[in-house]
Design a protein that fits this description.
Elements: E1 17-22, H1 33-42, E2 49-52, H2 65-85, E3 92-98, H3 100-114, E4 122-129, H4 143-152, H5 157-163, H6 176-180, H7 186-193, E5 196-202, H8 211-214, E6 228-230, E7 247-249, H9 258-309, H10 329-340, H11 398-410, E8 413-417, H12 439-452
Parallel strand pairs: 1-2, 1-3, 3-4, 4-5, 5-8
Antiparallel strand pairs: 6-7
Helix pairs in contact: 2-3, 3-7
Length: about 450
Amino acid sequence: MEESERTSIDPQRKADHLCVLVHGLWGNPSHLAYLAESLREKHPVHELNILVAKSNSGTYTYDGIETGGERVTQEIETLLQELERDGAPIKKISVIGYSLGGLIARYAIGLLHSKGWFEKIQPVNFTTFATPHLGVRTPLRGYHSQLWNALGSRTLSASGRQLFIIDTFRDTKRPILSVLADPDSIFIRALSRFKNRSLYANIINDRSAPYYTTAITATDPFVDLDAVTIRYLPKYSPIILDADRPVAPKASQEKQSFYTRLSSSSQGLLYRVPLYTALVALIPVVTVVWTVNSGIQSFRSNKRIQIHEQGTGLEGYRIPLLLSNGTNTARSAMSGAFRRINSTPGQDYLPESSGEETPNGATTPTTDKAPPDNSSSPLELKRTTSRKAEFPTLALSDAQFEMIRNLDEVGWQKHLVHIRDVGHTHAAIIVRMQKPGFEEGKVVVRHWLDEGFEM
C-alpha cells in the first residue's frame, strides 16, 4: 500500500473512523507498511480511513518530540478538514505509534484535545509498539552504560536530549517526558479520553527501547529467562504472554557445581572472542563516523527547528500545556533530580535491604494502579504498591518513577511479546520490513487487530 491511503478523497466513502500511524526514529512511512496493509485487509476503505504520517521522515525525527508532534497534528487536521469539506466527516479516531512515534503521538493527541477535536470526534484506540515511554537512559552500571547515557543524549539533537531526559521543555523547567506524563497536562487529559489504551513491549533483545521503558515498569523479570516460567496466550503462543499471569519465578534449583559453571562460562567466552576482536577493530572507526554524522545532522536539525518555529499555523499549538497552576511537593523535590539524571552513574537495582516496593508490579503488567498522592516525594513513589515485588527494582531516576506512576494511573492494557528468531527485536515487533526472521511479528500484529483494535 502507498505511504498514505488518504490520497484520493472519494465522496462516496462512508468511513467515519480515522486511524493514524506514526513511525519512529530514522523512520519513514514504509516502516509501517505491514501494519497499514494488515489494517486495510481487515477493514476496507468504506470502514476505515488510514493516514500514515510522513512529515517526520528520516532525519526529521532528530527535531524533537514537540516539533514532530506539531507536524503530525498538522497532517491530521488537514485531513480532517478535507474529509469534512468533501462530506465525509470523521467521527472516531485511533492513533498508533511505533518507537519514538509513540511519544510523538502522545504529544499530537494533546494538541488535538486542546483544540477541541475530541469534543466532536470520539478517541477510540491509542496503541504504542516498542515505545520508550520512560526514555532510553540505561539503569545499568559500568563505564559502557555511562558512556551510552552521556554520548547518546548529545548525538541525536533535540530528540536525543529528550529521550535521555536531560532537556528542559519550554518554560516548564522540566523534561518533556515528565510533562507528557503530568496528570495536569493536556497530554494525559487527552490520553485518558481514549476508550482503549494499549502497549506492546518486547521482553528481550530490544536494544533500541528496552523492556522496562516500553512496558512502563520498574522491574524486569526477563533478564534471565531460565529463572522464570513464562505463560502465553494459547491462541498466540509462544509469542504473546498471558497479561493476567505472564511470569513467575521458578522454584530454586540446586546450584551447579563450580567446575560445571566454570566450563560453561569458558565456552561462552570462547564463542565471544571473535566478536570482541571485531568490535575492538570497528568501534574506533564507527565512533568517528557516527560522531561526525551526528554533528552534521544535529546542525541541520537545529536549522529545521528554527524554520519550523518561524512558520505559520503554529499559533494554535502554543497553548498552556499544564491545566493547573498549582505545584506540589513531588515536583519541587524532583527538580534537582532532573539535573542529576545523566551526571551520575546508576546501579542495576535498588538495594534489596531497602525494602522498596515497585510502582508497577511485574506480575501484573496491565494496570497495577496505586492511589494518587500528590504530596509524595520522589523517593516515596517507589513505595506505591501494597505488596512486595517478586523481582528486584531497577535503579531508575526519580523522574522515571514519577512517570510510571502517572502513566499507570491512566490505565493501559500491557501486551508482552517474546520474539526469539532475531537478535534485535525492535523492528520485528511490527514487521518493519519483509524478512524471514520477522515472521513472529506477524503474530503480534494479528493479536493487535483481533484483540486491541476496536472499530
